[in-house]
Give the backbone structure.
Amino acid sequence: MQPPKRSRTATRARLLEGALDVFAERGFAGASVEDICDRAGFTRGAFYSNFASKDELVLALFQATTDRLLEQIEALLPELASQPGTLLDAVLGLLDETAPDQRQWHLISTEFTLHALRNPEAARALNEQRAMFRASLTRLVAEISATSGVRFSVPPEQFVRLVIALHEGARSQSLLEPAEVPAGSLEHTFLPMVLDAVSRPSH
Amino acid sequence: MQPPKRSRTATRARLLEGALDVFAERGFAGASVEDICDRAGFTRGAFYSNFASKDELVLALFQATTDRLLEQIEALLPELASQPGTLLDAVLGLLDETAPDQRQWHLISTEFTLHALRNPEAARALNEQRAMFRASLTRLVAEISATSGVRFSVPPEQFVRLVIALHEGARSQSLLEPAEVPAGSLEHTFLPMVLDAVSRPSH
């Protein structure tokens, strides 16, 4: 007999996976809880015993994606502390690879952001989730800059906001024109310039 | 009696304005041609004698917005040629001001971009429109750098792509957290650093 906890985790995972597919096909607004249950092979009862709403499920997807990214960055920390110059390459590499299907993830995260711009409750929840992610990334940037003796001329959180903004804006261009803007190319070209500029001693 | 051309232009303008409101409220997918006609006070016949589809109307909105921006930048050219350092401030100022309702414009343009990611025909049309806009901006950047004797270490089009990516990504953060990320703040902080970095003589 499977312990109940494991079964519950497996149900959640299958619902999240099914939702990814359904959202990518029909969009956040166009996908119903029923569609997600059909895809995952569960009843609405199973859905609602795991998630209070479609919004809560999407936020769980955000959380899972950012948790995975942060874990991967933390695993690199010992190596980065001895080679601080490679931080940006490492982070950019992870951003490229974390979401195996960048298109799917871009569609879902952008659609939920638009939903949040029309729905204050969703905005609060999304902002909270994004703030936790930024705080974790900011802590890592601050740690690495301390270890490597580099002083930032801007608050590390501003730099993290820049990385996120550029990555999200560039991803849209890469998905629309994959041949002209290979994934990660704008980030790889321009972020090292900014890192270099903010790492100079303040004057 | 009004000449037919003027009346046609006025009908188009009213349809575009009505569509802006309806899209912002209901989203691109949720707004029907009928909703737009109701808002603008026209029949479906009037709509289809001006636009072949909802997609074509949105592309006309993109065109009108980018034309306005380019006109404003061109009007600044004589001044910029004598004070090249102010180029970025001028462009950033225009980006801040061009769409009087940044939220509305962000919702519509992002939604149409998502639609294009699921619809190859819409993607072709959107990419064509964006390519024309980038080409005009690139020509202006190249003119100004030639006049001011500055050499770019990256192709000017790459710099234009960066400005667009950062602006679109930053706008999302500003709309979600207006107090933490005032409109234009990430662009004003970081783009001058990049401009400085790419303007150095190549070595």
Chain A is about 80% helix and 0% strand. Residues 55-199 of chain A form a domain with the Tetracycline Repressor; domain 2 fold (CATH 1.10.357).
